Amino acid sequence: MSGFNEIISSDEKRGGKGYFSKTGFVDWISENKLVHMGFIGQKYTLMAIRGFNWDIWERLDRVLCSMEWMVLLGDGYVRHLPGVFSDHCPIMLCLHSFHRPRSYLKPFRFDDMWLKHEGFRSMVQNHWAPSLGSLPGKLQSLFNKIKMWNNDTLGCIF
Questions:
Q1: SS3 readout for 121-157
Q2: Which of 10, 22, 28, 57 has its CB surrounded by the most CB atoms within 10 Å?
Q3: What pLDDT digit, counting tens, does each position of 6-43 carry?
Q4: DSSP assignment, residue 71?
C-alpha cells in the first residue's frame, strides 16, 4: 500500500484550501493502467474537523486494480465503513458477494478470432437477413446462433 494522500479531482474534496495535485498520482494511475473499483457508502473517507468553518472532507482512501484483476474478481466490491476511532473511514474490499450471477445472464462477448474463420461472415449474413422482429430480438437471436456456431465449429478451445 502507498500513502499518496491525494484526491483525484475537485469533487472529491469539500472545505479547506482548493485542490491541486502534488504527487502525480493521477498520472501514476494512468501509466499503470489501473481502474477504480468504485465504492458503496459515504463519499468522503477523511473527515477532519479543524474548527469553526474549517471542516475538511476528502476521498483519500480507494481501491485500484488492473482490468484483468477486475474481470477475475467478478462481483467483488468496496465498502466505505463508518469512521469511529480515526478521522479516516476504514474501507473493506469484499471479494465475494451474496449475489451470484446466473450463467444465462452472462454478457455476450465477441471473439476476434471468429472473423478469421472462413465461414463466420456468411453464417452471420445468412442468419441476420431473414430474421424478423425488433433490433434487440434480432441481436439476441444472432448471439445465440453465434454461440451455437462457435461450439459446433470451433468447440472448446480452452
A1: HHHHHHHHCCCCCCHHHHHHHHHHHHHHHHHHHHCCC
A2: 57
A3: 777 777 887 877 666 667 788 888 888 888 887 888 88
A4: H
